[in-house]
Design goal:
By secondary structure, this protein is mainly alpha-helical. It has two domains: 28-79, no CATH class; 84-125. It is 56% helix and 8% strand. It has helices at 32-58, 76-83, 85-119, and strands spanning 11-15, 22-26. Helix 2 crosses helix 3. The protein starts with 10 loop residues before the first strand and ends in a 6-residue tail after the last helix.
Length: 125
């Protein structure tokens, strides 16, 4: 008994939880567009997160400026941030601006979603 090459297709096992029946389901091919989208999203994500991965460890440095690391780990910069009134006030204002912009963006995004859904073809609601 020989198996033809055309009979060898990638499949996945699918289990029906109600009947406990196991069957093979052919895997669907992934299009080139989805692969490229995944690659672009991964690069954009790395571009956005890599600076943070460098800055956070540098903020624990005991150096006189944030640009270099001298091998000493300390909370010096965080102590300065919370001890000085000017820095604490600036951090508070930044926090308030962040909360306000989050609320505005969420409200506008939700309204835009409902509006676009109403305008989309085939939506009879």
């Amino acid at each position: 008994m020989s198996i033809a090459k055309s009979d060898l297709k990638p499949t996945a096992l699918v289990v029906n939880p109600k009947t406990a029946a196991v069957r093979q389901k052919p895997l669907r091919k992934v299009s080139f567009r989805w692969v490229m989208l995944t690659v672009v999203v991964a690069f954009v994500g790395l571009y956005l997160i890599l600076p943070t991965l460098f800055i956070i460890p540098m903020s624990f440095s005991g150096a006189s400026s944030l640009g270099r690391f001298n091998g000493e780990w300390t909370f010096k910069w965080y102590e300065e941030l919370f001890a000085a009134q000017n820095w604490a006030r600036a951090a508070g204002v930044s926090f308030q601006v962040g909360l306000l912009s989050t609320a505005v963006a969420t409200t506008l995004g939700t309204a835009a979603t409902f509006g676009l859904f109403k305008l989309s073809p085939g939506s009879d609601r």
